[in-house]
Amino acid sequence: xxxxxxxDRLPAFAKDIKLNVSSMLSDETLTPQQRYGLFVxxxxxxxxxxxxxxxxxxxxxxxxxxxLDAAHAAVAVMSMNNVYYRFVHLASNKAYETKPARxxxxxxxxxxxxxxxxxxWSLAVSAINGCxxxxxxxxxxxxxxxxxxxxxxxxxxxxxxxxxxxxSLEAAEVSESLKAAxx
Length: 183
What we know:
Layout: H1 3-8, H2 15-26, H3 32-45, H4 49-59, H5 65-90, H6 115-129, H7 132-144, H8 149-182
Helix pairs in contact: 2-8, 3-4, 3-5, 3-6, 3-8, 5-6, 6-7, 6-8
């Protein structure tokens, strides 16, 4: 199923999401690599297989294999880091902040694409996963690299739209299933 086909499956209650997805797809604030890498990383981070498949299918037309691998790597490493650093941030015992994480994350130093693009994808995945400590860290790296606040905000907006797309699709499936069961 394509992104457009999934968009067409959104129910009336998700009209705003449908409109936001359309505007996101035509947004040219970011470079194509940044935009399509965000689509892939965010869709995978939602854990919705249909959405992840559709966005990856779309992105394959615009991204190199190295960029696709880097988008996947951003999701993988952030899935680990977001849990750990959210724990460190939320734990009342501040001693955890002084302990080494001892998590391998070599990909961050050499992601195979422009480091700023990888950081942008990592920030968006961190937004979906709700890790403020990681968001702050990636925001700082991006701003230090000269990435504009508008580009960073766009990445967060895309993450929000893609997350809402996934949730709306799941809500529609639940509703359809309950209607079918009632018949």
